[in-house]
């Protein structure tokens, strides 16, 4: 009896993945190739080595106090002379890659950024030891400056001064998104029935969150066009002029098309914002560091944009849970708060009255921090300090990599994987300067047309509507791909991550998919004869 695959249609792609994995791994004599996962199989080792080495220095600093009581007991950091002790620590290890990188990092903080080396070392030692609550809860002071320097350089190219932007360290980009939506709801910036415009296709949870009962938002799809290399057509961006659209949010570069917004789209959105200064924008730029000459919406609409960045993909650090929310100090969201009705302001004053004598002056970014801990626990809010230290060391690793060696290696790695997969599939890929290639969408219609013509492509589209193809691929080849429809695509497509398998495995995926298409083509010819 044939399986009714339509029953899986309501599942999120990430829940559907479990069913596909079950099928793909059902044969003992076959290796499963899971190209549905976004978790990379590469990671940045040097900043981790620096983290562990610095931990040794921090322990030595702690043992300068109170160890007379017990060899297992240490005390708090003695700031006096800490820079000299650090210099001796790295000099004794000169020539070790991690020690040299650590020395370069501190030199950059002191000599390039003009920050106090002693204060930086104190913050990092206390941070890596985890001996204090995060203070201030939003982000450690020097950590915020260093991470901010990295994020602004990578996301906006240095066009925005560091002292214009504030950052909130979060447990990854997904926590950042959850915090933003919650605080917007708590503060009456979005209400049930409001419209939220979403750049499609997009990471599927971002489609699902606004539709949850507690938000009840109306989703307005702003569809990227595959015929335009996954850029947003002007008529789609025109939807942002609707005054009923409270917020536009997108992933840039996109997930799953993996294409950065081009300059024309950025300029178009900036022009709409000039006419609609009330429009709020939320951009998730996690893949921006994989792109050439990337510019975030924050670069062109800083007052209206909430910038979310995660360290998870670029550094292979999904388990670390490291992300930041960035907001301009002079921003439209705070203007929204100031213009709320008096009754709403009174309600919010009561909500935040335990934090400040003037709750109405509390900025949105500080409300994010408070709401992340149900307000009452604001004093113990904040990302753990060891996590913040690793975030700083990741940032300094890139800031001191003047030849961008790490970036070049990663970009070449994922692009080679893409090239070999499509080569084995037998389909050529067009060059696109805006492509990032962390993921790829394998378009069913285009692929089948390129291989066997228009009639076969139409026949395959009819088969795609049954939900059969991805399950058959998983069952017969052991390959897991995710359905593009779950990410908001309007064409039948499958998402493959180019980050989590090795090159020979992507060749095997391409070959297996070609074999599957050939089998379908033979079935097509028989039915047409």
TrEMBL record:
Q: Where is the Aminotransferase class I/classII large domain?
A: 169-504
NCBIfam families per record: asp_4_decarbox, PRK09275.1
Protein name, per record: Aminotransferase
Q: Which keywords accompany this UniProt record?
A: Aminotransferase, Lyase, Pyridoxal phosphate, Transferase
Q: Which Pfam families match?
A: Aminotran_1_2
Which cofactors does this protein require? pyridoxal 5'-phosphate
Q: What EC number(s) would the UniProt record show?
A: 2.6.1.-
Q: Which InterPro entries match?
A: Aminotransferase_I/II_large, Aspartate_4-decarboxylase, AspAT/PAT-like, NHTrfase_class1_PyrdxlP-BS, PyrdxlP-dep_Trfase, PyrdxlP-dep_Trfase_major, PyrdxlP-dep_Trfase_small
Q: Which organism is it from?
A: Acetobacter thailandicus
């Amino acid at each position: 009896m044939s399986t009714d695959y339509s029953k899986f249609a309501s599942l999120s792609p990430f829940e559907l993945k479990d069913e596909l994995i079950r099928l793909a791994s059902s044969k003992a004599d076959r290796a499963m190739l899971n190209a549905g996962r976004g978790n990379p199989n590469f990671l940045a080792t040097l900043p981790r080595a620096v983290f562990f080495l610095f931990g040794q220095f921090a322990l030595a600093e702690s043992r300068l106090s109170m160890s007379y009581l017990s060899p297992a007991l240490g005390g708090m950091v003695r700031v006096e002379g800490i820079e000299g002790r650090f210099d001796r620590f790295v000099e004794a290890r000169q020539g070790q890659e991690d020690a040299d990188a650590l020395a370069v990092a501190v030199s950059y903080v002191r000599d390039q950024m003009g920050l106090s080396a002693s204060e930086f070392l104190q913050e990092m030692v206390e941070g890596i030891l985890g001996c204090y609550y995060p203070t201030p809860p939003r982000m450690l002071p020097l950590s915020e400056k260093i991470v901010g320097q990295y994020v602004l350089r990578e996301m906006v190219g240095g066009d925005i001064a560091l002292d214009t932007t504030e950052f909130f360290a979060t447990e990854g980009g997904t926590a950042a998104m959850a915090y933003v939506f919650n605080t917007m709801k708590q503060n009456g910036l979005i209400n049930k029935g409001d419209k939220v415009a979403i750049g499609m296709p997009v990471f599927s949870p971002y489609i699902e969150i606004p539709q949850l009962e507690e938000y009840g938002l109306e989703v307005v799809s702003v569809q990227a066009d595959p015929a335009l290399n996954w850029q947003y057509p002007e008529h789609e961006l025109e939807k942002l002029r609707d005054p009923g659209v409270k917020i536009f949010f997108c992933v840039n570069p996109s997930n799953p098309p993996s294409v950065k917004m081009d300059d024309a789209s950025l300029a178009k959105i900036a022009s709409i914002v000039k006419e609609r200064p009330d429009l709020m924008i939320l951009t998730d730029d996690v893949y921006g560091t994989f792109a050439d000459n990337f510019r975030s919406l924050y670069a062109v609409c800083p007052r209206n944009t909430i910038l979310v960045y995660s360290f998870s993909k670029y550094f292979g650090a999904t388990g670390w849970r490291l992300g930041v929310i960035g907001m301009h100090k002079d921003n439209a969201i705070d203007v929204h708060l100031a213009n709320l009705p008096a009754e709403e302001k009174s309600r919010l004053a009561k909500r935040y009255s335990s934090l400040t004598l003037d709750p109405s002056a509390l900025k949105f970014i500080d409300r994010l921090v408070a709401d992340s801990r149900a307000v009452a626990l604001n004093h113990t809010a904040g990302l753990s300090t060891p996590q913040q230290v690793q975030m700083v060391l990741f940032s300094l690793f890139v800031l001191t990599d003047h030849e961008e060696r790490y970036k070049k290696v990663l970009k070449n790695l994922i692009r080679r994987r893409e090239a070999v997969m499509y080569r084995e599939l037998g389909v050529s890929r067009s060059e696109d300067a805006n492509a990032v290639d962390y993921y790829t969408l394998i378009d069913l219609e285009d692929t089948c047309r390129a291989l066997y013509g228009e009639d076969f492509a139409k026949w395959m589209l009819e088969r795609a509507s049954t939900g059969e193809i991805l399950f058959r691929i998983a069952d017969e080849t052991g390959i897991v791909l995710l359905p593009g429809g779950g990410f908001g695509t309007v064409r039948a497509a499958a998402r493959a991550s180019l980050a989590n398998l090795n090159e020979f495995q992507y060749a095997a995926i391409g070959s297996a998919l070609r074999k599957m298409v050939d089998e379908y083509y033979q079935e097509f010819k028989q039915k047409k004869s």
